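Appendix B. Worked example

We walk through a single record from start to finish. Start with the input: the chain for Cadmium-translocating P-type ATPase, Proteiniclasticum aestuarii, length 293.
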Amino acid sequence: SVTPATLSAISNGARNGILFKGGVHLENIGRIKVIAFDKTGTLTKGKPEVTDVYVRDGITKDYLLSHVAEIERYSNHPLAGAVVSYATEQLQETALCRVEGMEDIAGFGVRGTFSGVEWKVGKAEFVGKEEAEAFHGEIMKRLSDEGKTVIFARDGEGIAGLIALKDVVREEALEAIRTLQEEGIKTVMLTGDHERTAAAIARESGIDRYTAHCLPESKAEAIRKLQEEFGMVAMVGDGINDAPALATATVGISMGEGSDVALETADVVLMKNHLPLIAQTVKLSTRMNRIVK
Ligand code: ADP
Ligand code: MG
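Next comes the structure step. The output line below is what the pipeline stores for this chain.
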């Protein structure tokens, strides 16, 4: 049954841009021990920009960018958009050859064929881990330690180049995470990105722990493991690839500018992409739970 305290907390939330899809979620959020966050678009602004490009000896940056952008044009991943706009700014002419058989592999990258030669663009594991790591290995480590996402391109001859992209951590993240920790909540980041990049972003945002190299399904699996270890777990996300984890979590929280699937799957919707709203939600709930008891 809905008590007056619940109703009052729900309307208080609504006034602050926090929408609860039912009183039970409002009760649960105050009992949460762990909150898991998606990285891209949740802790970061989700608007990556290309910062560095390295090519194999014998090919030009234009050659690399024109091919990569031509394939990425067909993907709607935030990294793809960033690569395409960068290439458009940098290139004098667009690609001379057209790509065929383009494929977007969620959590890995994209592939396409240019006059019979297959190109792959994406994470190291996707283009060939050992070769990718051997290609400017030290530079790649430094870029990742700076919190940049490093993607590789592979053509018929091997690794053609690497592209680094930086997505900035939201200004309010550090403070928002600290407030949650002061409430006794453990914070975790789940990302499909590389270990080193994940570590750097976790450090920048003050997150307690992280799991890197997550595929969309493994984000949900990570939530189940956290539930076994800690009990009630909330998940905050914005993307299509966060939907399984949002559904698995005790309370799924979606960022307001998130994808439709994330908004539909979530139990709580933050009207603005404003991380401090999460701690506000927790406080609203603990206060209400005290009154109800
Ligand atoms: P996250 O969980 O950080 O939002 P994703 O699961 O969407 O990331 O992707 C994981 C990784 O796969 C990216 O960090 C990138 O290396 C690679 N990747 C995915 N899609 C693309 C793409 N369109 N172009 C290049 N790389 C991609
Ligand atoms: Mg995201």
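Two observations about the output. The pocket of magnesium ion (ligand 2) is lined by residues 38, 40-42, 238-239, 242 (CB under 6 Å). The chain has a mean pLDDT of 93.
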